[in-house]
Every structure is written in structure tokens, then in C-alpha cells.
Design goal:
- The protein has a four-stranded antiparallel β-sheet with strand order 1-2-3-4, with no helix packed on it.
- It has one helix and four strands, in the order ββββα.
- The protein is of the alpha+beta class.
- The chain has a domain of 58 residues.
- This is GRF-type domain-containing protein.
- GO terms for molecular function: zinc ion binding.
- Keywords: Membrane, Metal-binding, Transmembrane, Transmembrane helix, Zinc, Zinc-finger.
């Protein structure tokens, strides 16, 4: 862990906390530097960050910890950070896989829509063929009826034909 790395965990202000130079209850923070890893300290009640520390009130709460404990805690913190990074990478991988699946579903949906349209067109063509055949059948039937009527009412000019004339 880098010495310059510093993060704090705010434990808030308690009624037993000392009063800082601003007249507010001091806040309890935890240091995460290599030198003072995990040590709690009091700071100004107006503390916001390293650049805005209020009245600069500061007092250690915890005693120094031995080097071995510092190394163990530092190693655990590094492992925790690595796990957070791995989790973020896994989350990104999962998000990418979900996106790929959504794209595949959209592609299959588009293919199904095209297939459905093709089916509808083929069905319509079959209906048109049927309607066309039905129309031809009706037309042929009408022609035959007209021919029959004409043959009934107009004799054939053949001498052997004996058709009844209606005049």
C-alpha cells in the first residue's frame, strides 16, 4: 500500500467526543495510511476532506499497533481491493454477455419477423392462386351456361340438327 494513500472512515460524532477549536464535537475518523493503518483519531467537527480540515484539530485515539498487525491488515485491505476490482470486472463481463444475448435475441426476432412476413406472402399468393382458379372456374362455368343458352335458343345451321326455335 502506498504511503500517500489515505482514506478515512467516519465514525461520526459522539456525546463523549472532545470539543474542537471551532466549538463543535470532534469527529472520529480512521486512517488508512501504511504508517497508521486502521488507527482512529479525532478531527475537527467541520472536517470535510484533506483540503478542508476545519480548525485542524487532531488527536489520536488508538495506540500504535505493531508492524506485524499493520502488515496483516494492509494485506487484508489489498485483498479486499483486489476482490472489489475482480467483482467489477465480473460485473462488466456479465453485462457484456447480457448485451450479446440481447443482440442475439433481437437478431432472431428480426429473422422470425422476416420468416413470418414470407409465410404471410406465400399464404396470400396461395389464396390469390385459389381465387384465380375459382375465378377461372366461374368464368368457364358462365361461358358454358351462355353457350348452352345460345345453343338452346339458336339452332345450329346444320341440316341434320333439329333444334327447337323460339320466335
Amino acid at each position: 500500500m502506498d504511503e500517500a494513500y489515505s482514506e478515512v472512515i467516519d465514525a461520526g460524532t459522539g456525546t463523549s467526543n472532545p470539543i474542537c477549536k471551532c466549538g463543535k464535537r470532534a469527529r472520529i475518523l480512521t486512517a488508512f495510511t501504511l504508517r497508521n493503518f486502521g488507527k482512529r483519531f479525532y478531527t475537527c467537527g467541520n472536517y470535510v476532506n484533506q483540503d478542508n480540515r476545519g480548525c485542524d484539530y487532531f488527536k489520536w485515539i488508538d495506540m500504535d499497533i505493531c508492524q506485524h498487525v499493520k502488515r496483516v491488515v494492509s494485506k487484508l485491505f489489498d485483498m479486499h481491493e483486489n476482490l472489489k476490482n475482480e467483482r467489477a470486472q465480473i460485473g462488466t463481463t456479465i453485462s457484456n454477455e447480457i448485451l450479446k444475448c440481447k443482440l442475439e435475441v433481437a437478431e432472431y426476432k428480426a429473422k422470425m419477423e422476416v420468416a413470418s412476413l414470407n409465410f404471410e406472402m406465400q399464404l396470400q399468393m396461395q389464396k390469390n392462386k385459389f381465387n384465380s382458379k375459382e375465378t377461372k372456374y366461374r368464368f368457364t362455368l358462365a361461358c358454358l351456361l351462355i353457350l348452352l343458352v345460345v345453343m338452346m335458343f339458336y339452332p345450329v345451321s346444320n341440316a341434320n340438327s333439329s333444334r327447337l326455335r323460339l320466335h
